[in-house]
Amino acid sequence: MMNTNPVVVRRTMAGLRKQGYVQSEKGHGGGWRLSCDLADVTLRHIYTAVGSPSLLAIGNRTESPECLVEQAVNAALQQTFDEAEELLLSRLGDVTLAKLIADCRARIVAHGRQSKSREDTHG
Fold first, then answer.
1. Is pLDDT at 103 greater than 80 in this prediction?
2. Are 92 and 44 in contact (CB under 8 A)?
3. Which is an annotated GO molecular function term of this record (predicted)?
4. Residues contacting residue 33 through CB under 8 Å, at least 6 positions apart
5. How many structural domains is the chain composed of?
6. Which candidate, 47, 41, 52, 50, places its Cα nearest to that of 18?
7. Which structural domain, as residue segments, surrounds residue 47?
């Protein structure tokens, strides 16, 4: 489903386990499950637990560090990048896993209603 190497998934889950957000069980019926209070864990906590990967796909260029144009552009943009990252981290801190679950459940209910409504008009 994620179209990624299983090693990446295992490393990610290990980071979450180390912070106490998930636990795993081996064997038949095993797997991963949440082991935290969803109201206490934010997306910022998860971001930190998985190693704080780069938030922005764009950033300062470093192909030619001696280039004066590159230096000027980097200097002009650095504060903007820093501010954007801090805003994003702040917003991640506002979203708890409990909020995500509630939103997901509401979407499932709404989707079920939409599907049933389509069946009533087409079936």
1. yes
2. yes
3. DNA-binding transcription factor activity
4. 22, 23, 24, 25
5. 1
6. 50
7. 37-94
